[in-house]
Amino acid sequence: MDITGTGRAVSVKTIHAILKNLFLSAVHACTDPYHAEKLKAASAHWLRHTAATHLLQDGASLLHTRDALRHASVQTTEIYISTNQHAFHEDMEARQRLTNTDHLAADNETKFPTTNANVASKRADLD
Fold first, then answer.
1. pLDDT tens digits, residue range 92-114?
2. For residue 23, how far is the Cα from the chain centroid?
3. Most buried residue, 39, 52, 110, 113, by CB count within 10 Å?
4. How many CB atoms lie within 10 A of CB 49?
5. Helix 44-57 crosses helix 74-111 at what angle (to 10 degrees)?
């Protein structure tokens, strides 16, 4: 790939270095420590993995994704499916925990309403 205009190909090592420098520049511009740490760890491989994951999430076929990544075997590309499934299960578990917490809060409110009248009534009973 000639991105320099010199007629010479750019090495894979140079592309990796360019991407790493871009990620590090983003780290310095990032105000969120969590995302800054993620960007610090980012690499060309991470970018490739992210692109493949998004292709599959957006409905691209496994064969087209394999071809885009230039994998020799579809089994290599299937790794991205298991990664997506793992992330999906983690997301569903988190959503279920949130839903259960919401239901518990609603159940407690139904069983033990804390309206002003109810609190006033309990205070009157104590007096």
1. 777 777 666 655 555 555 555 54
2. 17
3. 52
4. 15
5. 70
Q: How far is CA 50 from CA 56, 73, 125, 127, in A?
A: 10, 19, 62, 65
- 80 burial class (0-12, 13-18, 19+ CB within 10 angstroms)? buried
- Whether the Cβ atoms of residue 23 and residue 50 lie closer than 8 Å to each other: no
Check pLDDT > 50 for residue 122. no
**DSSP classification of residue 70:** T
What does pTM read for this prediction? 0.52
Local structure of residue 6 (DSSP, 8 states)? S
Query: DSSP string of 20-64?
Result: HHHHHHHHHH---HHHHHHHHH--HHHHHHHHHHHHHHTT--HHH
In sequence order, the 6+-apart residues with CB closer than 8 A to the CB of 77 are 52, 62, 65, 66, 69, 71
Residue 16: both structure tokens together: 């990796």
Is the pLDDT higher at 41 or at 83? 41
